[in-house]
Amino acid sequence: MADEVTLLDFWASPFGIRVRVALAEKGVKYEYSEQDLRNKSALLLQMNPVYKKIPTLIHNGRSVCESLIIVQYVDGAWKDKAPLLPSDPYQRAQSLFWGDFIDKKVFEYSKKIWTTKGEDMEAAKKDFIECLKLLEGELGDKPYFGGENLGYVDVAFVPFYCWFYAFETCGNFSIEAECPKIIAWAKRCMLKESVSKSLQDPKKVYEFVLELRKRFGVD
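Structure tokens predicted for glutathione transferase (219 residues):
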């Protein structure tokens, strides 16, 4: 029986983009279902009754929620192609650690850049750059966080690249000037079709961020 795979998602979500990259790396065919986050569908509420969030993956009628957990699931469910997590327990633990770091720190500080002003924004920029420098240290001289190939940490982090323009424009700073290795890594990732076809147009993301800033009363 052929796999039935549906992704409930929202176009600009870096968390949803993670899942799209992972599925593309694995060559999994799936139905994409764009969700209205202000008027959540009955299917989303049924399939993710706890958090009621995207992305939610539905595989043969069963749902998997939370982006990094979905990426781990995709890696295990379609394990014959493009492994994302290392088999070595220590290396695997390190990958999971950095994925968690991206969720807890990179996302938190980057969101503050476009949802705050003045001193709060300046502090967020500083914290965000410090996070990127830590990630540069973890990347080292490797082409990807996964080594010679795209791995779990790459999939967790690269979706934020299409938001960088919005962060830089809202915060009036240059990520490349501060963290050139991160930008070089992101451009390397973009040479992969699984990444370039999944990430969104940075200008379009920026326009979306401007809408959100108005909605949140920042501007």
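The two ends are 52 Å apart (CA to CA).
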